[in-house]
Amino acid sequence: MSPEQLTAVSMLANGATHADVADQLGIDRRTVARWRSRPDFANALEEATREVEEYASHRMRALGAVALAQLAKMAVDPKVPATSRVRICERLLELSQLRPADRSKEIADMDREDVVELVASLGSDIVREAAQRLDVA
Prior knowledge:
Elements: H1 3-13, H2 18-25, H3 29-37, H4 39-76, H5 82-96, H6 105-136
Helix pairs in contact: 1-2, 1-4, 2-3, 4-5, 4-6, 5-6
């Protein structure tokens, strides 16, 4: 494949439209459509799209782990209002029970352990503080 076709594959795999590719490469949109009908181009595009989706999936899992770690920190931070900490813990418990098929066992187990550790560390303090706030309200 030509360098232009390889660029087109990359752009299309990353969400560009035919018009985007045509404008970038200075070609007609029909040329992009013709390229897509070629088996070598279609195979390269399929592989590139799979790689982009795989990368995005790994990145989202990594960001999810960062978000959960941040929520766990907030859940035990006395500067965070008690009602917010209770909501955070409730949400972490909800999330810990979700097991999407594409998550690895290692990640699912890690999340569960993190949540169990979080709930254990909070103990009765957060429940008591939340109850006091509810009594005041």
